[in-house]
């Protein structure tokens, strides 16, 4: 229902019992509500980083909110299990972000009778007041069981395939810190489902059906993702180091299938990227690369790794051109030494955070940069 601020009523607490994206945001008792820690951390960081003049202005703004309006807002956010402050109405949203929030709530089965909406465009006092009330500068805003849980940040999500303890873990932490819902895919996850604020899913990158099923699970639980990182890799060395072709055909096929897996993952990603929910969001597919595909010679022990990266690198190059008009970006990102060569073992050991920082820059770039990002 949509109403003015004066239409505040009362209702009981409610939460979805089945495990889904909706349960993350609607169940106030759920210990792993993914984006709440990131949201609170961001708010705390803002307070810590703000200069005294900004803090003073925020305090003045806080005092400017009348007791009457504050009381009405306090009652409004607690009146229904889900309260949405938006521009326009669910039937006629007046901005892309408000439309996207309504769509994702509908997509995940939030029943209209459990949601109260307020059109901030119909009431200037409400529009400015809700921002001061929540200390959050933008609309839409969602409250669940009286608690502010976010706005458009509920729309952004990532699926990291090949979520090990090095690059995958660093990228996951970086995105989670910045408000992303994070799904981690690996062959042997420590558990399936939610743990440590991440969603874990089992995926075999050498198997098409497994990759496709993992994507379907992630979309069902978290909603369409707008960032996918393909971090999977393997190395198979010839049994006889002096005889390159002693490498078993099966080992070569298994290795190259990981490169083909990146192509399958990209195809599944495209459907999520094209969701109406992400019209306003960055959309990126990033493969963790290396320099082997660009060298004239690969040592026998590293040949299979170079082959799988060459497969993924070539399709990334083509995709980066093919989807520019939709602003869907594709990158083959490679850590290199200061001289532009393979990183030393010491540099590679310290490279996890470098990957995370650069991937974050690529995700937030306004347009496609060089697909071969070193």
Structural class: alpha/beta
CATH class of the largest domain: Alpha Beta
Mean pLDDT rating = 81
Q: Stretches where pLDDT falls below 50 for ≥5 residues? A: 6-63
Number of strands: 13
What separation lies between the terminal Cα atoms? 51 Å
Instruction: Return the CATH topology of the largest domain.
Output: Rossmann fold
| Total of domains | 2
Rg result: 23 Å
Organism: Psilocybe cyanescens
GO molecular function, one term: metal ion binding
InterPro entries: Glutaredoxin, GRX_PICOT-like, Monothiol_GRX-rel, NAD(P)-bd_dom_sf, SDR_fam, Thioredoxin-like_sf
Keywords: 2Fe-2S, Iron, Iron-sulfur, Metal-binding, Redox-active center
Provide a descriptive summary of the structure in words.
43% of the residues lie in helices and 15% in strands. By secondary structure, it is α/β, with parallel strands linked by helices. It has 2 domains: 67-151, Glutaredoxin (3-Layer(aba) Sandwich), CATH 3.40.30; 156-364, NAD(P)-binding Rossmann-like Domain (Rossmann fold, 3-Layer(aba) Sandwich), CATH 3.40.50. Helix 9 runs parallel beside helix 10. Residues 6-63 have low confidence and may be disordered.
């Amino acid at each position: 229902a949509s109403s003015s601020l004066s239409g505040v009523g009362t209702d009981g607490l409610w939460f979805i019992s089945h495990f889904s994206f909706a349960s993350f945001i609607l169940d106030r008792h759920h210990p792993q509500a993914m984006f709440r820690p990131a949201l609170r951390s961001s708010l705390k960081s803002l307070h810590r980083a703000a200069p005294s003049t900004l803090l003073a202005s925020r305090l003045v703004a806080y005092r400017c909110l009348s007791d009457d309006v504050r009381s009405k807002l306090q009652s409004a956010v607690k009146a229904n299990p889900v309260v949405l402050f938006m521009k326009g109405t669910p039937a006629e949203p007046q901005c892309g972000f408000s439309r996207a929030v309504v769509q994702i709530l509908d997509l995940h089965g939030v029943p209209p009778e459990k949601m109260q909406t307020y059109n901030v465009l119909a009431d200037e006092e409400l529009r400015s007041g809700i921002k001061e009330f929540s200390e959050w500068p933008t609309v839409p805003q969602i409250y669940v069981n009286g608690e502010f849980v976010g706005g458009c940040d509920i729309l952004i999500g990532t699926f990291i395939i090949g979520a090990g303890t090095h690059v995958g873990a660093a990228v996951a932490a970086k995105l989670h810190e910045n408000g992303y819902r994070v799904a981690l895919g690996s062959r042997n996850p420590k558990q399936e489902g939610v743990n440590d604020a991440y969603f874990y899913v089992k995926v075999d990158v050498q198997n098409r059906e497994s990759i496709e099923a993992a994507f379907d699970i992630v979309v069902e639980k978290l909603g369409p993702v707008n960032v996918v990182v393909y971090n999977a890799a393997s190395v198979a060395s010839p049994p006889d180091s002096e005889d390159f072709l002693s490498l078993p055909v099966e080992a070569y096929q298994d290795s190259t299938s990981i490169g083909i897996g990146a192509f399958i993952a990209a195809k599944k990603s495209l459907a999520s990227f094209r969701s109406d929910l992400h019209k306003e969001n960055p959309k990126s597919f990033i493969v963790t690369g290396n320099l082997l595909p660009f060298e004239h010679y690969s040592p026998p022990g590293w040949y299979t790794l170079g082959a799988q990266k060459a497969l993924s690198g070539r399709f990334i190059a083509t995709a980066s051109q093919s989807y520019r008009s939709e602003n869907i970006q594709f990158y083959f990102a490679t850590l290199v030494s200061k001289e532009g060569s393979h990183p030393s073992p010491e540099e590679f050991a310290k490279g996890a955070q470098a990957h995370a920082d650069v991937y974050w820059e690529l995700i937030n770039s306004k347009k496609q940069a060089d697909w071969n990002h070193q």
